[in-house]
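@channel anyone free to eyeball this complex?
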Amino acid sequence: MTSATVNDVANNANSIVSDVNQSNNKSLGAMLGKSLPDACRKFDPRNMVHNPVMFIVWVGAAFLTLLGIFQIFDGSLANGEPVYFTWIVAVVLWLTVLFANLAEAVAEGRGKAQADALRKTRTTTPAHIVKGYDEKNDPDARGPEKGEGSAYIEEIPSSDLKLGDVVVVAAGELIPGDGDIISGIASVDESAITGESAPVIRESGGDRSSVTGGTRVLSDRIVVRITQKPGESFVDKMIALVEGANRQKTPNEIALDVLLSSLTIIFLVVVLCINPQASSVDASVSLTVLIALLVCLIPTTIGALLSAIGIAGMDRLVQRNVLATSGRAIEAAGDVTTLLLDKTGTITYGNRQASEFHALPGVDHAEMVKAAALSSLADSTPEGQSIVALAKTEGFDLDEVPGAVDVAFTAETRMSGLDLPNGDRIRKGATSAVEAWIDKEGGTMTVEVRDALHEKVNFISGQGGTPLVVAEQYANGEVKVLGVVQLKDVVKKGLKERFADLRKMGIRTVMVTGDNPLTAKAIAKEAGVDDFIAEAKPEDKLAYIKKEQANGQLVAMTGDGTNDAPALAQSDVGVAMNSGTSAAKEAGNMVDLDSDPTKLIDIVQIGKQLLITRGALTTFSIANDVAKYFAIIPAMFMEKFPGLGVLNIMGLHSSLSAVLSAIIFNAIIIVLLIPLALKGVKYRAEASEKILGRNLSIYGLGGIAAPFVGIWIIDLFVRLIPGF
Amino acid sequence: MVYLFAIMAFALIAIILAAIYKPLGDYMYNVVTSDKDLFFEKWIYRIVGVDSKKGQTWKAYLRALLGFSLLSVLVLYLLQRVQQWLPFSLGFPNVEGPLAFNTAASFVTNTNWQSYSPDVTLGYTVQFAGLTVQNFVSAAVGIAVAIALVRGIAWRKSETIGNFWVDLTRITLRILMPIAIVMGVILIALGVAQNFAGFVDVNTVAGGTQKIMQGPVASQEVIKELGTNGGGFFNANSSHPYENPNMWTNLIEILLMLCIPVALTRTFGRMVGDIRQGYALLGAMVILFGASFFFVVTAESFSVDPITTLTGGSMEGKETRFGIVWSGLFGTTSTSTSTGAVNSMHDSYTALGGMMYMLNMMLGEVSPGGVGAGLYGILVMAIVAVFIAGLMVGRTPEYIGKKIGPREMKMASLYFLVMPITVVAGVALSFAVPFARQSIFDTSLNNSGSHGFSEVVYAFTSAANNNGSAFAGITADTPWLDTMLGLAVLLGRFLPIALVIALAGSLAKQDKVPETSGTMKTDNGLFVVLLVFVIVLISALTFFPTLALGPLAEGLVA
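replying in thread with the prediction:
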């Protein structure tokens, strides 16, 4: 299925981080600069109102700007503070809003670049539409040359194509729209969407029939039925996704919004109530300080970064060549508790490899190995090559025998072999095939030999291997069974550790295979998966998913065939392979452009990383409030109650410098955290307590401590402003 | 020395509660989960027309609860309004309308704020048949709400959250009544008054004569503490020798206040099938309670005024038979539960000591809180804590297998909005509205400056948290405060209850997410610390400015 993409699984995890790092290192400054115009556009209050926390800051800044203007004309409004105090605070608040907009714009900007590249593929191309397509008599749509009743071909712009139209695409042409091949086979260059330069084979029927608009046919000629509506092509959807055009808030984001809004409401009430309360003891606080306090208390840090975190999460998937149809799917990926993994291509390499030679009793081991290796020399299949390679490790480095005739594998004989010039004939194949051959050649097997052979074969099957029986007919007509080559599924390197990591994260892995239960069990054990489904049919997958979900589990799977579609739709995270059918792609909520099923594990980690980042910055933001209170509250009332100076533990210079330092910190921290929001918090596969403990100490305790230090340092500079 | 004494007192309480914890928690678990109705309960259901086997949706449950509470207010109001025609009225006249309403609302909400002086206002019938009955059923309502929320957490894919009438009946008759009867007898044996003697003329030591009221004190005293009600038979409450004559009764009254809220965490653990979950909540309660108690003892023993410290600390407003430690323990218990009973006058504490009592209430009364109210309060905070920090394990937040989604968060967020906004806005309006300001300064306050301000803050905090204790220096029987505090009492009780029942409904509908090693653990020390942080942080952030103007301004000296 996907033998082309044999990524070293173990490296994948590291590469997520390094990929993102690389794109990040494109200098944050440059990225911020580039996004500045977009950020400024977001000042529109109609846009701001979607983010209640930052909208409050916006209103506060606007109010203080007006207040600053009035103070120029009426100095008494300044409440004894320097006139420029209000101005400076207003500027800092505007900057706070700007930084929040910038965070979002930078995150969106990264997607925009990808969208632009995709958009280039969406140019209108001429499409050769088949009018009156006759599936029965003329499946290839050869047209009039075939004679009566046939279709004729007309050229129209690809933008005019409708759902269900049939088009013909020849070598060298661009495929005009998404569709399924209904006739023909072709190699297709899909680099425009996947970035993978090696061409892929697409053919009618089966699970590799879907083609994507904008990709180019390199060889042959195919007939394609269009499966998209105009303007809703796969590329269109991709563009919308990476641009975040119709990005909807995920349930968790909505819930977080509720919490942040509630905190904002509480602090709004608290701040509104300060002056009435203070009036009871003949104290009062200026409007400027009150608004500064409000902005400090409401969770601006997370409010500013929340949408950037979500967009960046999508972006991390896109960089791994995975497209999610919604942010919700990524969140679900973080919650997944069961992974359904196809054996072939995901857990094992696509091909079996020889792992051991078993000579039958009474047969010279060397003879058996030699025969097996000789007959495989001309065999170009990976299995054949692996037999030669294994023989070499045992010291049998053989050259081709001149004059020997190669007997290729046929579906009829189900054997391959070699006829030597001296008349000896070597055959290898499945047990039943070789036994049939021996019978046909008039050979006999003693009961002992037969029993010994069956014992070996059963032993190999029990180990999860595939037995390949080797027999030889000597020139004298005598037939002899030499032994059995053990072929085995090779489990990809590093997977066992990876599955152990998943187990630590509380995720069960389930292997899905068509093998018999005995073989499946052995491979499952070797790969270290928690469970397996043997002799699996697509319905079994669906049934398994339903069973898991009934127990409250969230299931993720990959699939490519049309008959995978129901299971993909049922699963909580369904990753369709881009090489698969369009039915599968419709059913899943993610598409992997590389068609690499192993990536499911990365997707889960990206989901978790997104959630952790969101939680870490929320915790940090709320924890920050402690220090800001200690900066501003003493500053507000110290004049009236000198005793409150005890609470000024940072030793801030004056009440004005304390207030200003706090809001400057509040603004700067947003910019400082943009890289973290985009990059995501570092994630290691560990049990939840460890992850929580570490993140709580970094972002919780750190969130309490950091502003104490930050505000103190800022105050050292702010106090130099005359009048502060 | 005072610390050694404090530690011993704390340990004594802890040991006794530890002994009660399991049997009482398990007993309550059996009562609320049992399928069987007792024979007298069957009669009650038949008379009221309730099918005890039929569960209610959260809406039906809430309707029943609110209907019952409304009826209770009306009955209690009427009893007071016709008092003079009732037997055993001791000759007291009918209670005036506004005051009768205030008292009715206050007792039905488990607040027991007393704008009146009971010894000169209410006769036996009202006290006994009105107030004492409400002391039982208002406590049962609180426990029922908590049980409904726990069912929401424990049950899977359920449309119902239990039956209010069954919960109310069982909790009253099987939990509160038996304990009250047994402990009432013990209190009587230890010297708490219980008679119908009315006013007695006594020749005092100084040679004068005094009219002293007596009555069925013990029966009301026991449920006053057990149901975390707090409304005293006498104005002096538990500092009155008829209510709380000696150290033994003092100890028992503290234990009565704490036993149900503490043991409910066990009931909770049993119901969700993991007693460690209950221990975690209890852990957070103990940390908050312990910190508060030792803070008060410190504030009272080591004053900024050296003479006070030298003479053994501030004894103003405290009974000599209890001293600082047992007064502090009683006060901490009373303000940490929603009782509001006092054995010392909180207004006379040092500024910081008094602040601690306010803070106990400002935390939302979760350490361990009122009967039921404490449990559902801390559960909501646990949900908020899980939501904030839970994301950091890389999964969308869940608490004991239930996802905390937008709807759950809406309920939880509104819950923690209600109390702080009621308090802060109530205080602010009292000084911002001109006629209110005048009424506060001219009539209500006898102290000026920060201390007077603290008294107003205490009053609103106590009302909105259904505590009912007072910084006694304030005159609360004014049109403004009667109205506003009455409003605060009702909002502070029924809005949160409605939100909790709705939360229970939405949790019950969910399936349970199985626990894996990737699940955030909510039964370990880390979670306890986190929960304490979140509780303290949210209330500290809300009330810091208010406290800075009141007790902090008064208590901190440059």
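from a first look: Residues 410 and 586 of chain A are 38 Å apart (CA to CA).
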